[in-house]
Design a protein that fits this description.
Elements (H helix, E strand, L loop, with lengths): L2 H18 L4 H14 L5 H6 L11 H13 L3 H9 L4 H5 L6 H11 L4 H9 L11 H15 L5 E2 H18 L4 E5 H4 L4 E2 L1 E7 L3 H8 L5 E7 L3 E6 L4 E6 L5 H9 L2 H13 L3 E3 L2 E4 L2 E4 L3 H7 L15 H6 L14 E2 L13 H10 L4 E4 L14 H17 L5 E9 L10 H4 L4 E5 L8 H12 L6 E2 L17 H10 L3 E5 L9 H9 L4 E4 L11 H10 L13 H7 L3
Parallel strand pairs: 4-7, 11-12, 12-13, 13-14, 14-15, 15-16, 16-17
Antiparallel strand pairs: 1-3, 2-4, 5-6, 6-7, 8-9, 9-10
Helix pairs in contact: 1-2, 1-5, 1-7, 13-15, 20-21
């Protein structure tokens, strides 16, 4: 997929135009276009083929032409021209926390700094001192940022960040009197990875909250300590910002600091149309606040249906809210079973019985055991004889009445390079849920990979496409595949798309979930659990499905077994 490449190119144009300084509006336009492409999810090439690039928020005719140029040639002539005029390594400098477009412009205009190395040299030579808007604290932050980049700092997975935030919130609740406390930012929007954590607090003793915050046992350093904002960096190097808000502004602050930036811009524009003013302190008519204490009131006063945080990306949610068409998104409580799990028969850590017991404890009505198959030798994949033995074992368990749960007979079957499945049809026909997945030869070219997967989906025994792009967040990009073609074939062959809840996968992404649903497909939210406690990862798949606008009716494992199995019939 070219989305990330194009987003980076458009963002680089934005920064270089900012440095050029000729037009203050163009940099903003390119920055917004970059954000739209980055979070689009759907393959931008597919959008271009349909002639619908200008339907993407922030993409006008001029930027659409540049995207088409990149898709045709792999370059954007306007960007190449800017690079020659202003030889700044934008990505390298922006990887430093605290260094954004305005700082890059400042450093280039005054010191001709173009990359990490030249910035480090200027810093060590004391040349940053005395520059406008760069005080001692900012210079120290840049120095720390360079150290972090040199040490390989990266973003944090959603699940890890949620765990960190949960512990910190609980610590604050136990340490001091707090009236309201919420996690905001991209973490509240449940983005797949986060750069930092935002926590909002209302308390009768804000000074005590700040004191407790900077005394947190896992703290590495205090970055900023003010009356309304305190920033710390944990020993893990993750930054956490605490905002101390008054009760009358808490809802407005929660809305504002949840974002996203583009969503907030849309709301402020709506407020202006109604001759109102919206900011983090409230919604105002003149000097009178008409909303601010509760987040829901902000949306209500703007004539909008309440928009769940997961949808606040300026991807059509404002228009839907104006028409009262925000759907009732799927909830964790809607899930009745898990259709993808592993045991110690392959690469899992727990026995079948232990996995069943864990599923019972979670209240599941059914659990599908879908161990790997023989092509995946590294996972001790099962051949036909072992699968048949497992089928008998599951029948015995279900007939015993030992557990109040139905165990479904399944397998995660490897898709071979030619598109065939690695288990004989005579055995596949005896399974209730067949998940087909790509695990090997993941660097095939786009056409070959697309044909490979589409061929597998045409098998009359393929029920679910597992982790469709095969990505591993922060480690490995997904396979190069035309999902639009895959979805078309899946629809014809009644194949369900998996939303894999494993924190390192979260695959499909939000944009492609929306595309799958628009294509008429159903999804299955599965954990791909290899350990008992990983069955609890279902919530991350729920977050991802909600970001993709999925409702309970879109998800097959919100059904009872009686209603589920007929859905899988070919």
């Amino acid at each position: 997929m070219k989305n990330q490449e194009i987003a980076r190119a458009l963002h680089e144009i934005s920064v270089l135009l900012e440095v050029e300084g000729k037009d203050k509006f163009k940099p903003r336009a390119y920055a917004r276009a970059a954000r739209s492409i980055e979070s689009l999810g759907e393959d931008v090439e597919a959008v271009a083929r349909r002639g619908e690039l200008e339907s993407i928020p922030g993409i006008g005719k001029a930027i659409a032409k540049k995207i088409e140029e990149y898709l045709d040639t792999g370059t954007i002539s306007h960007l190449e021209k800017l690079r020659k005029q202003i030889p700044i390594k934008v990505t390298e400098l922006e990887s430093i926390p605290g260094v954004g477009p305005k700082t890059i412009k400042l450093l280039y205009d005054n010191l001709k700094i173009t990359d990490l190395e030249s910035l480090e040299e200027a810093l060590n030579a004391g040349k940053l001192e005395g520059l406008p808007r760069l005080g001692a604290k900012s210079i120290a932050q840049i120095a720390e940022g360079i150290s972090l980049v040199r040490g390989g700092m990266s973003r944090t997975l959603l699940a890890e960040a949620m765990d960190v935030a949960s512990r910190l919130v609980e610590y604050l609740k136990q340490s001091v009197s707090i009236t309201q406390i919420d996690v905001a930012g991209s973490l509240r929007r449940r983005r797949e990875t986060v750069g930092d954590i935002d926590i909002l607090v209302n308390s009768p003793s804000p000074e005590q909250v700040a004191a407790a915050f900077v005394s947190y046992p896992e703290i590495g350093e205090v970055i900023v300590k003010g009356d309304t904002k305190v920033s710390i960096r944990l020993k893990s190097r993750l930054q956490v910002d605490l905002r101390l808000l008054p009760a009358e502004s808490y809802g407005a602050g929660l809305q504002y600091f949840t974002g996203s930036k583009d969503h907030n811009v849309r709301l402020r524009a709506l407020a202006q149309q109604k001759k109102l003013k919206l900011n983090e302190y409230g919604l105002f008519r003149g000097d009178t606040a008409i909303a601010g204490r509760h987040e829901e009131d902000i949306y209500d006063q703007l004539g909008l249906q309440f928009i769940p945080p997961e949808l606040r990306e300026d991807h059509g949610e404002v228009e839907a809210a104006q028409a009262d068409q925000i759907p009732a998104l799927v909830e964790l409580s809607d899930i009745r079973g898990d259709l993808h799990s592993h045991t110690d028969q392959t690469d899992g850590s727990n026995t079948l019985e232990e996995m069943i017991e864990a599923a019972v404890q979670l209240g599941h009505e059914y659990l599908c055991v879908s161990d790997h198959t023989k092509n995946l030798t590294v996972a001790n994949g099962m051949d036909e004889s072992r699968i048949l033995k497992r089928i008998d074992e599951i029948d015995e368990i279900n007939n015993s009445g030992r557990w109040p749960i139905r165990v479904l007979k399944g397998a995660e079957v490897d898709i071979l390079p030619n598109g065939e499945l690695d288990i004989d049809d005579s055995v596949l026909s005896q399974l209730e849920v067949v998940t087909v997945s790509v695990h090997t030869m993941m660097r095939m070219d786009r056409a070959a990979m697309t044909e490979r997967v589409c061929t597998a989906l045409e098998s009359k025994y393929a029920h679910i496409l597992g982790h469709p792009t095969g990505r591993l967040l922060l480690k490995r990009p997904g396979i190069d595949i035309d999902l639009e073609d895959v979805f078309e074939v899946a629809k014809k062959n009644n194949v369900v798309m998996e939303v894999n809840s494993y924190p390192q996968r979260l695959d499909l992404d939000a944009g492609n979930i929306r595309l799958a649903l628009r294509s008429g497909l159903k999804i299955a939210i599965n954990t791909d659990a290899h350990k008992t406690f990983e069955l609890d990862n279902m919530r991350y798949g729920i977050f991802q499905a909600r970001r993709g606008w999925a409702t309970a009716s879109d998800v097959i494992n919100t059904r009872s077994v009686k209603d589920l199995l007929p859905l899988l019939k070919k």
